[in-house]
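hi! just following up on the protien thing from before. the input was this:
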Amino acid sequence: MSVRRLATRRFAFLCLTAGVVAPIYAVTAKPVASIEEAVFVAVQSLIYAFVIGVPLAAAEILAFVAGTARRQRLPFAAMFALKTIGYAAWIVTGVAIAGSFTHAHEEASWDELLLHKGTLVAAGITAIAINVFLSAGRLIGLKTLLSVVSGRYRRPHREERLFAFVDVRGATAAAERLGDLRFQAYLVELFRIIELTALEAGGEVNDYIGDQVMLVWPAVPTSGSDPLHWIAHLSREIGEGRESFDAAYGMIPDLRVGMHVGSVIVGEIGLFRTKLAYLGDTVNTAARVEELAEGYSACALITGQVFERFPLPHDLLKATALGKWMLRGKQGAVDIYRLDLAAG
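and the predicted 3d structure came back as:
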């Protein structure tokens, strides 16, 4: 699976963050006497941000790409320590290099620049802060982290979202056959494919519930966000990995997917472990559609609202109307469509 697009987006985000934060910090950290001085300080900080930030962003993306390709990673503590040491070393070096461009350290030798206690301490603190931020983003999702930090959802409010539930067919039998450890490895590999394809299609994982994954998309289709394309790409990725899964686990993954779009209440929950919670009939309906998919060998089942709001990629998928269905816990009937891979 190609993760180039996803890696490029993350690289651009990290570089943009460095380019925005650096001049703001430089101008506000100490008073400036004039607009000209503020501009000069901001330009200097951008040079530092470029020299230090771009290589750090590239290193982070290389680590991300390598991590997506491997089933086994280093323990979190070991990876955190290695990245902190590496990032701190480059920050110190980058300060010296950027200083030579800005003539900020003309009277200092390279030994003095690289071993300056203040620079070493600042580099260590900065490296730890960067890794804490990125690690927190990995644990709860970068979009969620930014929303929590900004306080956007401190007070719950209503928004529209699309939800997809993905469940593994025959998970109980698979767990008994493989054993707990091999079944966990099987889920890790399967969930990796689900998450990467969703991220590439503009979605994100909201939660893992046993052998089920809950994913979220914006409710408006855009060029970078298309859940129906994700359904097709996920099905093809699973199909292309059939031999690999069969060789490793003696079974081929079979997923059921249910999808619905509508209004929900979004807000933070949790005292010490915060997450964004989506509450409302839309989430429940998506879960019930996923349950209904148990009786079909389709790529996915979607509601009429999804079918009407998101254009169907006819070169990838074909849709079949299944009529109105009474879903468990719902009072009114819901229009259901099944999606299958298009021939060819």
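The longest helix spans residues 35-69.
The chain has twelve helices and eight strands.
cheers
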